[in-house]
Design a protein that fits this description.
By secondary structure, the protein is an alpha+beta fold. The chain folds into 2 domains: 393 residues, Alpha/alpha barrel (Glycosyltransferase), CATH 1.50.10; 240 residues, Beta-galactosidase, Chain A, domain 5. Helix content is 37%, strand content 17%. The strands form 4 sheets. An 8-stranded antiparallel beta sheet has the order 9-10-11-12-19-16-15-14, with no helix packed on it. A hairpin with an 8-residue loop joins strand 4 and strand 5. Helix 14 crosses helix 16.
């Protein structure tokens, strides 16, 4: 995609022909900002941004102390520092846009305070990404030369991570939008910011050090590359230097694009697709508009497929099929994804984004204040707010959204089946064969054969998904966490054996078919339980009847040795659950009842599980339930359920 653009003469020619590049109106362009404020499609969004900014005027800026930075290495906690770090940038972003909307100086003093505080941070790299050996994407970083477990970073050796790059882009865009005001009021601050962006981000990029995201393996590449190119386009005046930066960033971006499967599937999960796709669209737009190079992205089928990957994963509203480190609730990168929809001409993606704009704006307007544990900060930084206001009007008129009833994502080995074409209606099943190998997906869980069930847009039988990240999340102890291990998924333990993580831990003999009114998936999970599975078989069959809205699931076990125990948990969201004398379990939704009828299984218990993890609390509330099942006739070695709306 970017190979043909990697020509220095072409980049320089484009720069010379686009001297008047002006991606957004500055604060002095009052007619355009007034048009945004008066757009009925953006009215609630603009009001919500101002509501957040108004509340900040009398509040103190969150502290970021040395001891808070030390927490990551001393006790593994990421949240205390990151919460304040992200919120600073979230709040600055709202203040900047609010000032652009009003242009009366209301927020200027507070903006200056936030800019000053961020400039004063010792490091823009978050602790989780600034220590050698503590994260699988923090590659090529040397250990601390004085004390290996020193909980503070080595001076002059900050890692160019996701959020250092994001900070550079946020400050660069703030200076671009407020240039007229800052140069009039505090020119020294304006030029100090330019210098710090150069020192803390661009010169690190141009220097001799290497960073893991150069390899193009995952969302880090698109996220970092887009932010750095954006910061450079705003701040670098020398054409030769800017062209060289673009050339350097297009290399990892091409590697990243090459890793995307032809189907466009994103194995990292929908939350990371949001970042990857949005930043890819942003990077494409910068190359095309700043450098005048037509990448013909809309003609690239893989690019088109990647842009629409999210559509079948939508359960309804802002709920998406979550697997591995995916989260059920996702705030979309609305402006960036709206641009993606424009690039590929997708009315369906445009419709999904349009619905999310209205939902999230109403939520923010109703809850403008601070609240610890909110996970939407990174989706509401300045890069997103500006594009929300100026890119989403491109395609708010879109066709009614429809969903395919049967989808097979072959590269991920995931089946999605529905009884209705409308998101949020009827019965829906997601099931994954997949792999537990972190080399295949560093966000993987031990979940080969896992399935989830949704009824009328409600998650009923669930995957807890991504928990709060800590120091242990990306280390060798990752798979000991219960929500990541197979005991936290809807898969069996056989003779007390759980799934393991590593090379070869994957489904085999995977088969999907959609015939008539049924969708069917089968897989052998034995390699996920045994490092040398041989002739062992642990076959899971999943059948979805689209016309009767019925799911049938069975496990056939042949270990070549006595089967002594078969235990299977089903995790259920917080709701009324009734276990009948016949063993049937009734899960009560808002309007309907989901009935689970076990076959050769008995219920061993209905256990409420208290949720303490901050991310899980935000998604699932204070508790979920585990329905435990065990074999009735162990020698029969076939166990299962039928699931339907009662």
């Amino acid at each position: 995609m970017f190979k043909d653009a990697m020509k220095i003469e072409q980049l320089l020619k484009g720069l010379s022909e686009n001297r008047n590049w002006k991606p957004f109106p500055g604060i002095q362009d009052r007619s355009q900002w007034k048009a945004v404020a008066g757009d009925p499609n953006l009215k609630i969004a603009a009001e919500a941004i101002i509501a957040v900014a108004d509340l900040l005027l009398d509040q103190e800026i969150d502290p970021l102390t040395g001891s808070m930075y030390m927490n990551f290495m001393t006790n593994g906690d990421r949240l205390l520092y990151e919460e304040n770090y992200f919120r600073r940038r979230y709040e600055l972003s709202h203040l900047v846009i609010a000032e652009c909307l009003k242009a009366d100086g209301t927020y200027l003093a507070k903006i200056i305070d936030y800019l000053w505080e961020i400039l004063g941070e010792i490091s823009w790299c978050v602790p989780a990404h600034n220590f050698a050996g503590q994260h699988d994407m923090v590659m090529f970083k040397q250990p601390n030369p004085w004390k290996e477990d020193d909980p503070l970073p080595v001076p002059g050796d900050d890692y160019l991570d996701l959020f250092a790059c994001e900070t550079a882009a946020t400050l660069a865009e703030a200076c671009y939008l407020l240039k007229h005001t800052l140069l009039e009021a505090v020119p020294s601050l304006y030029y100090r910011i330019q210098g710090e962006i150069d020192r803390r981000a661009l010169k690190l990029l141009e220097g001799p050090k290497h960073y893991g995201w150069y390899l193009g393996r995952n969302n880090w590449t698109a996220w970092c590359a887009h932010n750095l190119l954006l910061a450079a386009c705003y701040t670098v005046e020398d054409d030769q230097r800017l062209a060289a930066i673009a050339m350097k960033l297009m290399v990892p971006m091409q590697r990243f694009f090459d890793t995307i499967e032809p189907s466009g599937a994103c194995i990292e999960g929908p939350g990371y697709w949001v970042v990857s796709a949005g930043r890819l669209a942003g990077f494409v737009s910068l190359v095309e508009e700043r450098f005048g190079i037509d990448l013909k992205a809309g003609d690239n089928q893989k690019f088109r497929n990647f842009g629409e990957h999210i559509l079948p994963l939508n359960i309804g509203g802002n709920l998406f099929v979550n697997f591995a480190d995916g989260s059920l609730k996702i705030d979309l990168d609305q402006g960036l994804l709206s641009r993606y929809a424009s690039l590929i001409g997708s009315d369906q993606l445009s419709g999904l984004v349009g619905d999310d704009i209205d939902r999230s704006a109403r939520h923010k307007l109703a809850n403008p204040g601070r609240g610890r544990g909110r996970n939407d900060y990174a989706r509401q930084f300045l890069v997103h707010l500006t594009r929300l206001l100026f890119w989403t009007p491109e395609n708010r008129k879109s066709a009614a959204r429809t969903c395919e009833k049967s989808v097979w994502l072959a590269d991920m080995q995931m089946m999605i089946a529905r009884s209705e074409e409308k998101a949020g209606a009827g019965l829906m099943l997601s099931a994954i064969a997949g792999s537990n190998d972190p080399e295949v997906n560093h966000h993987s869980h031990n979940d080969v054969g896992h399935f989830s069930v949704y009824m009328d847009g409600e998650p009923m039988i669930i995957d807890l998904g991504q928990g709060a990240y800590s120091r242990a999340t990306f280390t060798e102890t990752r798979y000991d966490m219960w929500h990541i291990s197979s005991k936290g998924h809807n898969v069996p333990a056989v003779n007390g054996r759980l799934q393991y993580a590593g090379k070869g831990s994957q489904a085999r003999d995977v088969a999907y078919r959609h015939e008539g009114t049924s969708s069917y998936l089968s897989l052998d999970a034995s390699p996920a339980y045994f490092r040398d599975p041989g002739s062992r078989r642990m076959i899971r069959h999943l059948n979805f009847s689209h016309d009767t809205a019925k799911i049938e699931i069975s496990d056939e076990i042949d270990l070549g040795e006595p089967l002594t125990r078969f235990e299977l948990p089903l995790y259920v969201s917080d709701r009324k659950i009734v276990v009948g004398t016949d063993g049937a379990c009734r899960l009560y939704g808002k309007h309907s009842v989901l009935v689970i009828t076990p076959e050769n299984l008995r219920v061993t218990g209905l256990e409420p599980i208290e949720i303490t993890d901050p991310r899980h609390l935000d998604v699932w509330g204070s508790r979920v339930f585990k329905i435990g099942f065990e074999a009735i006739d162990i020698e029969k070695a076939i166990f299962g359920f039928s699931i339907e709306i009662g």
